[in-house]
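The authors assume throughout that readers already know how a fold can be written as discrete tokens. For illustration, here is how one protein appears when written out as sequence plus structure tokens:
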Amino acid sequence: MPVFKSIFPFTQEVVAEYEIMSAATVNDCLALSEKAFQQWRKTSFAERSVLMLRVADILIAKRDEYANTITWEMGKTLREAKAEVEKCATACRYFAEHAESFLQKVDMPSDASKSYVRYDPIGAILAIMPWNFPFWQVFRFAAPYLMAGNVGLLKHAPNVCGTALAIESIFIEAGFPKGVFQTLIVDVDVVESIINHDIVQGVTLTGSEFAGSQVGAIAGKAIKKSVLELGGSDPLIILEDADMEKAAQVATLSRMQNAGQSCIAAKRFITVGKAKDDFLHQLAIQIQKLKQGDPFNEATTTGPMARIDLAEKIEKQLKSSIQNGAHLVLGGSRNGCNFQPALLTNVHHGMPAYDEEAFGPMAAIVEAKDENEAIQIANDSRYGLGAAIWTRDIEKAQQMAKEINAGGVFINSLVKSDARYPFGGIKKSGYGRELSSFGIKEFMNLKTVYVGA
């Protein structure tokens, strides 16, 4: 049988192999999902909440075990992996406590004796998830959608099969009925047939622009709802009155955490007017504090990138940007999957550090003469996921936020995903929203009920 291999990025050691499911096994899983939905949809919010709270408890109780699996498979530091598992538990508790209120029927005044809209689950939701946050990406779909009465099918990235199976085991241990959440160890060539299956009523994907385009087209042809969370080239605007030290600290965290492998990482640092020199000085200090190495070592702040091809791509983007006029301030060397955090200045249109999504630990400084040009540069991207503004003038920042084309704008803060507010983007960053009272409704039937006089 063909297999997927889990490879420890820091050493390139093969740590496990997983058999790819046969077509017959996949069909059995889909049939089980359909059967499970018919029962799960009838359960009460109270019943679902009890189980989802158990999931949260298991995540915390076995945090270290799951964090180890994450680090072995995709290389993030153990500290980051532990924080990721804890974040999943928080989301589970949030939706266990709030799903019912989010999905209450809404009275609609009309000429009827009674009319309202109710939210009903629609079936199985296929989640095609990436490796960079292998627990969090899954739970931010599973917690709301299962609480809403849908069932889940997970097609995870091939290099994190151990993580995918561990997540399935959590739902089983918590007492979720068989088939409510299943992991499918499958390759991309069977995704279309899964989306086309009658039980699958929606698909959510977090991944590349190319993958989103392919999946969106398949779902559209099948007339099924999709939510796409794709790439980002997030701008971080620094005005002259910003707290430069704090801005640099948060900017470094945003750009370099998870070895820079985050769709909402700040990727283009746009300095306004005289802000550049001070911000560059502070940013260089922060980046030089980073310690790259073994992700299991507590002293390590920056682990390896998840795969060799990813490290080679960011290296190629760096070299091409330098060839086109960018100046390398520090970092940029590569050893296997280990890419030394890099800082570039003199970055402008026409080089990869400006035009492309740089999915690795490379920071790029772009200069703007004033706020208007900064907004123009921020919007000069095919992506529109997140953005940040640093200034002491909060009113000005809020006015600027209106002009920035992004799914979220964070003022004097790290751009982040949080169960309490909607997450998603515009343009080539995708469509639809995850999380919050908005995201939980993406895969619901908004059913109008009209009672005649």
User: Anything to note?
Assistant: The longest helix spans residues 78-102. The chain has two domains: 3-230+429-451, 234-418. The chain has a mean pLDDT of 97. The first strand starts at residue 3 and ends at 8.
